[in-house]
Amino acid sequence: MNAKNKTKILVQISLIGALYTVLTLVSGPLAFGTSAGIIQLRLSEALTLLPLFSPVVGLWGVTFGCFLSNLVGFLMGTNMLGLIDAPIGTLATLIAALLTYWIGKSGLPAVGKFLLAAVPPVLVNGLVVGLELTFVYHTPFALNFFSVAVGEAAVCYTLGMLLCTVLNRNSFYKSIFADCKKAG
Fold first, then answer.
1. pLDDT, tens only, 6-22
2. What is the pTM of this model?
3. Taking a C-beta distance cutoff of 8 angstroms, is the pair 134, 72 a contact?
4. 3-31+40-175: what CATH class?
5. Distance, CA of 87 to CA of 27 (rounded, Å)
């Protein structure tokens, strides 16, 4: 890989990270669910399906964006758990992104990949962030899992599916990502 491609990939990772951060911060208090039982709605979680199309850029872009948005949210006072959430939530996002990438490598048709690709972000974030909230707030895990997973599913199965459909149509993703592949 030449220097021009490396630079392009780094710029794309940064852009996705910045977009993730902006979408998270625009979601306001709903993005951080500062108390147990509140459904967390991070519009940025639609981007967690990008590893289907771009394994390097999509995976590292959303991971970087998650880390950055948690830290910026903490500094802005909207994410009181930001210092804990930055490493823990970012690890959950990275694991979910890797699983989504592996789903993208499967032989399933595009629609099947899109539907399955939303499962890792929903389950992994529900489990990991749910445990984090249980530990910090001393509230029931089931309630915390539900509050994270429902919001994650709502965003991934609406905005995420729309994003996948647009990117997959006419190979639009090829004009965006340096390391692209067709999802179906």
1. 888 899 999 999 999 99
2. 0.89
3. no
4. mainly alpha
5. 21
